Amino acid sequence: MLLLSPLLIPLVASLLSTFVSGLARQAVNLFSSGLLFASACTLLLQVADHGRQSLALGAWPLPYAIEFVADGLSAIMILLVALVSLAVSIYQIGWKESPEHSGLYSLQHALIAASMAVLLAADLFNLYVWFELMLVALLGLLTLGGGWRHNEAAFKYFTLSMLGTLLMLASVGLIHGSTGQLNFDALAQVSRDPSLGPALTVYIGMLLAALLLKVGAFPLFAWLPASYHTLPAPLLALVGGLLTKISIYVLFRLTGQVFDIGMLREALGWLAVVTMVSGVLGAAYHWDLRRILAFHIVSQIGYLLLGLALASPAGGAATGFFLLHNILVKTNLFLIAGLMWASMGHYDLRKGGGLYPAKPLLAALFLLSAFSLVGVPPSSGFWGKFLLLQETFAQERFVWGGIALATGLLTLYSMSKIWQECFWKVHPGTLSPLSPPKTAYVAVITLSVVILFIGLYPDPVINYLQEHTTDFWRDNS
Amino acid sequence: MSTTHTTSDNGGKAWLWMAILPLSIFLALVWGIGNHSLPWAYSLPWVPSIGIELAFRIDALSAQMLVLITGIGTLVFVYAVGYLDHEPNRGRIFLVLPVFMLAMIGAVTADNIILLFLFWELTSLTSFLLVGFNHKDADVRDSARQALLVTMGGGLALLGGLLLLGQIVDTWSLSGIISQVSAHTSDPRLPWAILLVLLGAFTKSAQFPFHFWLPNAMSAPTPVSAYLHSATMVKLGIYLMARLDPAFNNLLLWETLLIGVGTLTAVWAAVLTLRERDLKRILARSTVSALGTMTLLIGLPSPGSGLALMTFMFAHALYKAPLFMLAGNIDHATGTRVIDRLMGLRRVMPWSAVVAILAGISMAGLPLAFGFVAKDMISIAKEQTDLFISISYALVIVNAITVAVAGVATIRVFWGPLKSPRKKTREVSWTMILPPLIIALVGIEFEFFPHIADPLLLAAAQNVSPDLVVTELSASYEPADIFSALGITMVIGIVLFFAWDRLHQALSKIHSLDFGPEAGYRLLLRGLSVVAAWHTRLIQPGRLDIYLSLTLSALMIMVVFAAWHTEQRFAMDLHWSEHALAWSVASLIITIGATAAALMRQRLAVLMASGLLGYGAAILFLFAGAPDLAFTQFSVETALVVVAAAVLPLYAKAPPLEPLWSNPLKLLLAVSAGIGTFLLLLHMQGLPESRQLADWFATNSLPEAHGRNVVNVIIVDFRALDTLGEIAVVAFSLLAAMPLLQGITWQRRKLPASPMLTMSAKPLYWLMLVGAFWILLRGHNEPGGGFIAGLVAVAASSQLAILLDPSTARRYQFLSPLALALTGVGLALFGGMFGALWGPGFLRHLWAGGLSSVMIFDLGVFLAVWGALMGYIYSLLEVKAGATNKLMESAS
Amino acid sequence: MNLVLIIAVSLSVSAGVWLLLSRDNFRILVGLAILGSAVNLIIFLGGRPGTLIPPVISMDAEILAQGAASPLPQALVLTAIVIGFALLCFGLVLGARLSRAHGHADVTRQHASEPLAGSSDDPYKPKVMD
After folding, report:
1. How far apart are the first and last CA of chain B?
2. Does residue C106 sit within a domain?
3. C105 belongs to a structural domain
4. What would the pLDDT profile of B370-393 be if each residue is shown by its tens digit?
5. Model confidence, pTM
6. Contacts of A223 in chain B (CB under 8 A)
């Protein structure tokens, strides 16, 4: 039952949210986020003590039933999603940017429920179903804005994502048609069968291509900077921090444990470095804070893909760490961007300014997260990049490592641009007299403390990941 | 820039207490050196899983750096109190400066290279914040960013180099690397590691071509410049190179790079000094030149070079810091730093003049100051090895220019007739006089009492050049030696001093000197903008059609790539079976539908064609043993066409259709997709079919799940979670569409309502509803089930809405569509809970007699489908009189 | 005769892609619908259809007859059909609202959320570029 709670809690909350209104809705939002966080902690402890947990839905035997699995990696991902969800819920108290629409919390929780289910899913078709729920929930959140820009963004997201899910569905159908299996463990066995495995590569490649679209890899990421920036700050933080990372998790699981994609690794690595550079160039071009950060999502995805391309347990630990760090830092940056908007009155860098003298706390929080993104020690980002680079160099992939380092410099350029324009430069007009709600600061500070803690004391997390990723890429270690 | 003179704020003196921090460390250090012999080592585990610990090691080299950092640090803090007396934001500097100091301390004592890197980057970061103190000025911002990008860029290279080194020698310990790396000189990665590390060191210590950030960093407040950019931070690179020197000194790469770059830096910076008019910038350039000399000294293979380096480093700090502070004093007193407008200041700033003389003597290398000792050591080191003649001559020029600079900073500004832009130029406060005075005095004192500094310097020198044999540090006072040391450089220097202005004008006219590395930096930044713009406009232009083409092409390339690596198994199934005719008909219908959809010009025709395609699929299902599927496909396709046809009038006019061949890429993509699909399916045919799952379902459907319709049993029993997710998708799609469905104004033409039709509407509704329930109930054992029942109910409500009106139909549905849909999901969850509470698990349905929780689950499915679909259909059928059309509202 | 069916499915995919690349909002959606149907058929083909016997256990048997159709792909397709349908409904309504707001259904001219280069909202300062 514990394995089901990450799915059921937000799902029930989502249903409830439509039937209550006003303050009760806020209460449901907060309560369920808190409950979800608590159950995620419990799950993590359970997995840390007793190892991999598995649940066959309906208590039917495997591999005939749909399976939910929580191992070390998924448990900590679940915890992070719950943490981020809680932070965003706190941030949302009193956030006045978007009108109170009855569907907001409902769709938000549906999104969380679907994300959790994806993290737990160990069945290929079930995975597809939950991806579709994520898609619908995000579409709902996009259209909530109501204006034609929002609808246009939603339409672009809709068509491109549908393309991705159709490809995914086709590949699931073809994989099932060729192997007769849907369960991850069963598929892992089949794909290693020398009489069948090598023939499956094209279908696996299709599945990976579909996931690369969901993940935001080059050149399939167009939907991301086309749609994300129309969302209000708390939703953007939730979506920007989580969704692509959850898809990376799926890639992680599929390439690390389920399928053996030996020859495709090389291509994945090159794709990764191109994604890194492409994302950061996009960020360097823009002057809208949200669009800059959206492109940075793409760039960071490049790093994660590089970790996957390394295809070794050490690479897996590095990717896992980077994944966790990235979820926290990106969400925090988006939340901070919201606070910046509330103070400056604008998301456009050219029209903002003056935040350093006026809001020193915000400046400090921004510095922490921004430099963590760049990878300046002793931040969480540094450890992530360090682990990644260490493995990259150990595998003698010097070009990839060099590009990763150079991208760090470009990321620094981008962050320093934001700092210059919004914090140091004098505001061209007047700063907004309204101060953002205190609860928003609470959320940001909480996440910042976690980021700082991981940066200063990364050992437990690294240890945990090293312990729980030995099972990945077993054939290559 | 100086601030206006307002009444002094005596509360600022409280910041003097900050100086306790560096002072206490300094005293502790001195006491420690006196009582416990170096080296000291200390380590604490930090990240054991990757072998990084908080390892510190203080040997003589570190100790000497620490003396500079904390000693000069204390006095800088005191100076800052005076300098920032009228600055309202001074708290920021006093908060960041100690952090910087701690970072420097960490960097010079770290014994773990990753730890060192950490502190290294921290110094860059704090320096950024300090340089950008007057951030309202755009030039200051640019200078701060320039420093940041250059030093952190170098830092990234340093990281790469350190990583490589660590992997080559298999340890993160600095002392370990230094002692063990000689065993790995043949490793091909080593030259790269050295190169990258040196790149980091060069950027930090402003070596050519990364020197340009240092003069621009002079926009920082003077205490910062005196501390960071003369005495401490810029010496960090020198420190690292000195530390690594014993390990790499015998490598040609190391020697050549250091000597070459060092000399080039020294000369280039010295020459450029002549182009400056701002006193601080002059001093900055001369610092760069000194750093070049230090680099050169590290590279020299002579045994005395270590001693020369240590002495010079010490002496330089001791005369540069006071000179910078002096520049700050002049700035405060007169409001300017431009040497053209300053002269004869000794009359009004006597104490500053004293400091100037003391520091200037040391800088010029005259026999009364420590600088003289340093010069002596340098010449000894030069003699001990063969240097290219050109380098020797270059060094002479550099020295000469240094003498000239000393002259400018002291004699020119303080002697001669008084000239100052400010009428009432007064001496500055004691907090701004005492620190530079003390430092300069120390510089003199060491000359006369060298044995105080001796042991430390010698020990430090030995860390750098282990073959040092000198046992005591003293300068030779033989007249011949004095003459040779002083002679040429002094003469040339004095000439340059007097010719300063003419040289300045001559050099300013050489415009090619403008295009140095700094221009390169600016070009790079602009290039970045251009490239970023080109790239982003190319792949993210904002147009969906481009996105779709790009995405489809990329996806197809990926699939082709994957196919290339696949073992092919094509097979064709050509036997003619009994239903082949039906299948061929179905396939024909599908083909006609597809072709028509692609080619038709009218939207409605396109829609109908796609419907035809769907019907073809339904026929196929019917003749392929899938009755449930056939019915569902049939109903869904009909519903889709109905909804689309209802929505179609809301669409704006279609853009003109392009001819088939106008867009070759489009044609190519479509054709390739088709061919690809064909091959993919053929490939699958060639693979064996595994019936493992299907057989198990077939065997266990009745005994375990009590159902004969295996498909339905899979849907509500074996794979119920899929269904749960699916109805969630359906319900939430309605929720997501709510903002879109509101406010649609749709004028419906009322159908001519014949009374017979109207009268039969309600009974028909009930009849169909009953039929839906019957289908629901029988679904477990015969074709039927929740979906199909739901679709039948949808048909029922739709006919009621069309024949009568939507609001009646709504009333007869009891709940609002959204509520109904979500209740359906809730009910399904509820149904699944029975098994969780009283059975083996969630979604395992319990049976008691003829009843089962499976009914509740399927009912949930029914309600979800019925509610969600009707939500769409009602909105599309309804007339919303007077509803504002939100479509035309301006964008938010 | 699966070959005929495979050809039909491939043609459907071609048609779907062709429509997907159209300039018309509506046609794009129809293209997605067609692609959805095609993918459903692909899944169905995975079960190697060939028999007319539905997977329903007859009244006098305990297990399914040997020659019956494979039930699992049918269940998957059923789920996929319904999901696809819900999404298409949403898409159709979205497309309608969008085209009404713009006044046209041409996707090449729908870039309000991402201003084109050179427009007043262009993030790139034009004076630096050629």
Report:
1. 44
2. yes
3. yes
4. 777 777 778 777 777 777 777 878
5. 0.92
6. 547
